[in-house]
Amino acid sequence: MPDAPMSGTTYFAPAKVNLGLSVRAVRADGYHDLHTLMVPLQVGDDLTVAPAPALTLEVYGADLPTGDGNLVYRAARAYLDAAGTDRGAHLVLHKRLPLASGLGGGSSDAATTLMALARVYPAGVDLHAIARTLGADVPFFLLGRAAVAEGTGDLLTPLPVPRTPLVLVNPGVEVSARDAYRWLDAEETTTPPLDIDEVLATLADGRPVPYTNALQGPVAARHAPVRDALAALGSAGLRSPLMSGSGSTCFALAASEDAAHAAAQAIAVQHPAWWVHATCTL
């Protein structure tokens, strides 16, 4: 599907990866207490925003709804209502990221929508309060930098993460977070907290990174393409392959940006149907 003509102001909505994801417990409300290191990336979606008499949304690059079924639309509606304006906005979302992939694309798009409309219609609105109603990852994308996330993902502690080249591989499988956590719950297991200091140290010095993803086992057991993606990353000479979030995107670390691009090219040749991208942490 071709891109739409550009108008208004365009904002970048970055993807993220989880450099480890521990599920500490199931809460009384059915959600999960997490311990994860989330890092934004240089790859993501684009959102163009222009003031308009009414709220409208166009989507290019993916077959997504353009009304209340779209998180961008709901974020915009929530902001406009909170701002008390009778004006709207014309939004054009250019999807570059695969859907239901563990990269936080929808949450990032929603956070970017909130920040963009706060510039278009300044009103002193509490963006974080709105973000918490939209999804667990949306507050992280409002923060806009690497952070340890705890609780349901809304308790954020920013910290510096060394710039790290990596390769993303999505094997074309959509995995809902709801299913991934349900499969984990069926195993009745929890995982210990991440050793954040050791993760950061190994990111910097090139050793294998001691991170795990509690959701990787249940998801990979049910989706062979996830196992294939992890194996392909390891075979490409990359370091510490891991699934991001609830999947199905997997990633591994590279010694340099050139090494990341070379590995991504090799994987893409071997698996032309996969979405493969070399990028860096922000």
TrEMBL record:
Pathway: Isoprenoid biosynthesis; isopentenyl diphosphate biosynthesis via DXP pathway; isopentenyl diphosphate from 1-deoxy-D-xylulose 5-phosphate: step 3/6
Active site (record annotation): K16, D137
Keyword annotations of the record: ATP-binding, Isoprene biosynthesis, Kinase, Nucleotide-binding, Transferase
Domain GHMP kinase N-terminal: from-to ranges: 70-144
Residues engaged in binding ATP: P98, L99, A100, S101, G102, L103, G104, G105, G106, S107, S108
UniProt cross-references to SUPFAM superfamilies, sorted A to Z: GHMP Kinase, C-terminal domain, Ribosomal protein S5 domain 2-like
The keyword Manganese appears for this protein: no
Keyword Transferase part of the UniProt annotation: yes
Domain spans labelled GHMP kinase C-terminal: 215-267
Stored Gene3D superfamilies: 3.30.230.10, GHMP kinase, C-terminal domain
GO biological process: isopentenyl diphosphate biosynthetic process, methylerythritol 4-phosphate pathway; terpenoid biosynthetic process
Catalytic activity entry: 4-CDP-2-C-methyl-D-erythritol + ATP = 4-CDP-2-C-methyl-D-erythritol 2-phosphate + ADP + H(+)
Entry similarity comment: Belongs to the GHMP kinase family. IspE subfamily.
Protein name from the UniProt record: 4-diphosphocytidyl-2-C-methyl-D-erythritol kinase
GO molecular function: 4-(cytidine 5'-diphospho)-2-C-methyl-D-erythritol kinase activity; ATP binding
Annotated TM spans: none
EC number: 2.7.1.148
Biological function: Catalyzes the phosphorylation of the position 2 hydroxy group of 4-diphosphocytidyl-2C-methyl-D-erythritol.
PANTHER family registered for this protein in UniProt: 4-DIPHOSPHOCYTIDYL-2-C-METHYL-D-ERYTHRITOL KINASE, CHLOROPLASTIC (PTHR43527:SF2)
